[in-house]
Amino acid sequence: MSDSTSYDSWSTRFEGPPPLNSGMTVVADYLEEVFTEIRYPTAPGWAESPPTRRLMKGITESHLYPWNVVVPELRRRLVQKFKMASSTDSDVTYEGIPVLTEAFSGLSYGFAPLCPFKQKFASTSSFSKVTIESDCRSWDCEKCGKEQADRLFRAVTNVTLGTEELYVAEAQWSPKLMNMMFRRNQRVGAEYFWYRDAFDKVTFVSTRPLPGNKDPMVWRKMDRDEALTYIAAAVLWVPGHHDHGWTAGWRPLKPAKFVSDLISLHGFSEYQTALLFDTFRTEAMRLFDIEIELGTPPEERQGELAHLLIDIAAGIRSGDISAG
Ligand SMILES: [Zn+2]
Predict the structure, then answer these.
(1) Has residue 297 got a pLDDT over 80?
(2) How far does the centroid of ligand 1 lie from the alpha carbon of residue 216, in Å?
(3) What's the pTM?
(4) How far is the CA of 86 from the centre of ligand 1 (A)?
């Protein structure tokens, strides 16, 4: 990459990038400083404009930090700043969840997830490449984040149907918090939902109080409507999602796996995709005497050809099939 030398020059004003194993907080501190310096330079000669996604990704990866791991932490810090600076929420979702529009505008300078994004597949019925555009379903995407929050709110609404009262409590997240709550609940047998926001505040919504001598200590009894209103208005603000979870009895069922005739080519290079179809055409001719280019192969051969395509794709993915 010819760009990597110019990326190095960004970091010369600092003591140097922290090593890979310094932990996310240290790496994010460093990158925040680098990106802020590009936007608001202390020395003359730099343009005052937000760095692009391409530039930030390039700098991040030139230090071997994985962008996909770093970027959620950078987004979270940005969202925190906007949330603290904002006194009112500018919009609400369909279900009435507050939306911090300014935070999405802030994220749009290089930090927003790519949405919709294109996914490549190989079809086992047409034996050709298929590209499908999908929503990113990220909580930090303005479109998908609102939908995710509404979906989660409806899941909480559904699972609490028939429950007259709920107990709500808060605690600051720590690595041991969830284990502690699991142990508390072994004696009580409650069902609960938890939601961790961008500030690491964890809200528990439970069928029974789960007190202890550490936070969450105070469990507020609310009737269901009151609790749902509170969750929408004060807990699920967008884009403030970090993580959430459920006890086993409340966990929504995963939607049935979608069965299709598509093999994912996620991560395949152009070369590997071409290799897949070249190898497939050659093998179809060699094994079955079928010329794929001539159009739809005989129906009785479809199954064997589908398996052949699947096997070749797996072979390319594992590296067993490479140069032709
Ligand atoms: Zn999206």
Answers:
(1) yes
(2) 33
(3) 0.79
(4) 24
